[in-house]
Amino acid sequence: MGIKKLIKRMGRFMFSLKQGDDSVITQSVLITDNGYSRLEDLRIGIKKIQDYFPGSKISVLTLAQRCSFLQNEFPGFEFIIYSQKLKPRRCRITLQLLLLRKKNFDHIFIFSLDLTPLIVQLFLFKSKIILYNQWGQWCSLRLRKVSETFRVTYNKQKSRNNLKNFLKRIGLFLVLLTPDDEQALSHNILIVDDGAVGGQLIYTVRRIKEYLPFARVTVLTSGKPKEVEAELAITKIIRPDKFWIKRYRIARHMLRLRKNNYDYVILLSLGITPIIVSVLLMKGRVLLSNRWHQWWRLSLKSAGYYFMLIPRFVSDFIIKVIIFIYLLINVSWIFLMRAFNNLKINLLSEGD
Known about the structure:
By secondary structure, the chain is an alpha/beta fold. It has helices at 3-14, 23-26, 39-52, 64-73, 89-100, 115-124, 163-174, 200-211, 226-230, 249-257, 272-281, 303-307, 309-351, and strands at residues 15-20, 28-32, 57-62, 78-81, 107-110, 128-132, 138-143, 175-179, 188-193, 216-221, 236-238, 264-267, 285-289, 295-300.
């Protein structure tokens, strides 16, 4: 067995390749309205989200009394009305969020720093969380790492010293809140082109821009076609540095880009070294755009897959043994009946 074939088999054992549709690019968005923000601020924020996510599936979690206004403004959205029975209001939102946690939203937009719903969103959702506040700022939120514990990135407006604001200050100590303006809404995308599929790069870039018009698209390519340089939708073109093993030039340069926090890494072919770097060392979602214009998701196989290998092997072995015994019995029975019939024919012929 050649080394190349062995590496491919190891890749199939480690990585999962699952076909998807355009939803892997169009995104799924949840807008959480707790009822405290002004309707005009809410409308402006949602309109901006709609501009940045055209064609996306957008759901709005809101109050019943606000729903009619929002439905008139945004008729294509899905509206989820949370229960009016629970008090205080933040408990209603929290309960509804618990019911929605399995929907795997790509983005969650919030309009205030209510602590209880925010805890649920940070700990139970894998989504990117973005705040639009009353001063028109867009801010990204995530849990702080240990090294970021005392890092200050957000200057909260002055407020009264009461229990509610004290709890918010504690929350901001645990949460890293970074003002990004509208850059928080745009996507940072890396396309890796090794030149194996001609003409695929331009098509993929235009397809991305169709669904995410404000995306910042960086292309890592070893070729120098003029049409790539002339494509206005591309934000930046990177040529990999020279390396004595030519086939590893792109993967080696990808190692330098791993700290750029790309939302998507899109591969145009199944080169094993770019797959290993992108899946193991980059944080963004890894996709394959193949020559048939299909989207495939690349990821590491789950621990459950390896945990079930032995039971699956044992069950397959038992099933094969049962099938073998069944076929053996049937074949043996056929030969036995054939021998019996031959013996019967011989006895009858001797009697004549």
